[in-house]
Specification:
Elements (H helix, E strand, L loop, with lengths): L8 E9 L4 E8 L3 H10 L3 E10 L2 E8 L3 H9 L7 E4 L2 E3 L6 H13 L15 H4 L2 H12 L11 H8 L3 H21 L12 H22 L12
Antiparallel strand pairs: 1-2, 1-5, 2-4, 3-4, 5-6
Helix pairs in contact: 2-3, 5-7, 6-7
Length: about 230
């Protein structure tokens, strides 16, 4: 259907599979929504098409299909398909989360059903809580609560260190490790932006220089101006 209307967008909001049928609620966007809906009602694989809401260039449609291949494949492999699911020009972008053997089973089901697919990206999801040690997490939360990461800062590195009872140098080094871990995990989670495990020496040197500058700025912020001694005229 989406191949017949390449300019249309089909976003599946929810979907429920059955052995002989599938039910889904989708959001349709197109220049001519009426033409797309008419074609959907005439499609042999769609047993029922109900318009739930309709506006200018957009409609919410409930469908019942007699060939829920994607949903059946996911169900038989024991993998839930993450919603919403976008379909455009004959291609569905599918995200699944599960064990390696179940993901492999899903690919096998696709092959059995004659569905062409391409794996764009595979990554291991890590529990954010497990990224940091208890000590790192406690220090990070304290720094956030004290306003160390506010702009402008409401507390200095020394104040954070004093609050948790550690040396300023230890506090600085720990927060640097926390920041690197959190930032790398965030960037690695961006679409099509996996990070390589290796970091060249130049990058580390630049990062260390940046850290040094940050500490210098902190030192300047904490330093108190030296009072000028009064001058006496003879």
């Amino acid at each position: 259907m989406s191949r017949d209307f390449p300019d249309a967008g089909f976003r599946v909001l929810t979907a429920v599979p059955d052995e002989s049928a599938g039910f889904a609620l989708l959001r349709l966007t197109a220049r001519d929504v009426g033409a797309v809906i008419a074609a959907m009602r005439a499609h042999e694989a769609l047993a029922k098409v109900s318009v739930m809401a309709r506006g200018d260039g957009v409609a919410t449609v409930r469908i019942e299909t007699t060939a829920p291949l994607l949903l059946v494949a996911a169900k038989r492999s024991g993998l839930p398909i993450e919603m919403p699911l976008d379909i455009g020009n004959g291609v569905a972008e599918v995200d699944v989360t599960g064990e390696h053997d179940r993901v492999a089973a899903l690919g096998k089901r696709f092959d059995e059903m004659g569905l062409d697919y391409e794996v764009e990206r595979v990554r291991q999801r890590v529990d954010p809580v497990r990224l940091l040690t208890d000590r790192q997490r406690e220090l990070l939360l304290t720094a956030v609560e004290l306003g160390y990461y506010d702009v402008p800062r409401r507390s200095t590195l020394t104040e954070v260190a004093d609050h948790v009872g550690i040396a300023k140098s230890t506090c600085s080094e720990t927060l640097q490790r926390v920041e690197r871990t959190v930032v790398r995990e965030f960037v690695d989670d961006l679409p099509n932006r996996p990070l390589d495990g290796a970091v060249d020496g130049t990058g580390d040197s630049e990062a260390d220089a940046a850290d040094t500058d940050s500490e210098a700025d902190d030192t300047e912020a904490e330093a108190e101006p030296t009072p000028t001694p009064p001058r006496h005229r003879p």
